[in-house]
Amino acid sequence: MPKFAANLSLLFNEHTFLDRFAAAAGAGFKGVEYLFPYAWPASQLAETLQANGLVQVLHNLPPGEWDAGERGIACHPDRVGEFQEGVGRGIAYAQALGCPQLNCLAGILPDGVDPARAQATLIDNLRFAAGALKAAGLRLLIEPINTFDIPGFFLTRTEQAAQIVAAVGADNLFIQYDIYHAQRMEGELANTLSRYLPMIGHMQLADTPGRHEPGTGEINFPFLFRHIDALGYVGWIGCEYTPLADTLSGLGWRPAG
Q1: Measured distance CA(12)–CA(22) in Å, rounded
Q2: Out of 14, 47, 143, 218, which one is annotated catalytic?
Q3: Catalytic residue among 33, 85, 159, 240
Q4: Is domain 3-250 classified as CATH 3.20.20.150?
Q5: Strand runs (DSSP E) across 31-100, as ranges?
């Protein structure tokens, strides 16, 4: 059965951020992920993980000006230096937290930038990041994101991500397959997972519509979990959803065992 990690950017939001670690452990989670660690000292986060018996399974590289609406800068031709500096910062945090992989948000296509130039920039940046992460013993991920939630996002479909992975040619670059985003953009979840599983390094979930917990929308999660298990996936699945009510009352979807 897949291993589920609590996404602390969304789950247990009844608590302050640092208190969410204990809440996740108390609810039976063994792993956690969240968008960004950079607002807290790495040593404080590492101590909080250790105190609660948790492993950090994922966080993102620095995304640019998140509060200003940026959602990654990896496809921005004029931000390459900033991107490379962010790679170093992301690696430093991952090493301090014992986190084995980092997700790179491609970003929104900048106004006036030709998509071919943006793709070439993204590929070059991923080659740089993959090399730096490999030297540190880490994996790199890229995530297709739906354009209903983030209009203009550059990387939107699994096939596109697979083509970019192939173009980069790094053996530590994988796809982060978010079930919610994939359902909104392309559907065909079971067949897509079967086709691309060797390239998938991490998964995330939420139901749709609403981006709430499994069982609140249209996705047949019991079937999908059985399918993922049968495919032999052994990685984590991050629970990246907004609870419909409070977090604990919405955890009945988790399979036993």
Answers
A1: 10
A2: 143
A3: 240
A4: yes
A5: 31-33, 55-60
For residues 98-126, give the mean pLDDT.
Answer: 98
Q: For position 120, what pLDDT does the model report?
A: 98
143 is catalytic: yes
Answer whether 86's CB lies under 8 Å from 62's CB: yes
Name the token pair of 6: 């609590």
- pLDDT at residue 2, as a whole number: 79
63: preceding bond cis by omega (within 30 degrees):
no
85: annotated active-site residue = no
Q: Is the pLDDT of residue 102 over 70?
A: yes
Query: Which backbone phi and psi does 48 adopt, to 5 degrees?
Result: -70, -40
Number of H helices, E strands in the chain: 8, 8
The string of pLDDT tens digits covering residues 211-220 is 999 999 999 9
Question: CB-based contacts of 34: which residues, under 8 Å, 6+ apart?
Answer: 7, 8, 9, 17, 59
Q: Which two tokens stand for residue 65?
A: 């000006």
Tokens 């993959």: give the residue. Answer: 130
Quick one: which of 113, 133, 114, 123 has its CA closest to 164? 123
Q: How far apart are CA 119 and CA 7, in angstroms?
A: 29
Domain boundaries of the chain, sorted by first residue: 3-250
Alpha-carbon distance of 184 to 233, in angstroms, equals 22
Nearest to 101 by CA among 179, 173, 199: 173
Structure tokens belonging to residue 45 = 């986060």
- Model's pTM, two decimal places? 0.97
pLDDT digits 0-9 by tens, 41-82? 999 999 999 999 999 999 999 999 999 999 999 999 999 999
Instruction: For residue 38, give the H/E element and its range.
Output: none
Q: What is the mean pLDDT of residues 125-143?
A: 98
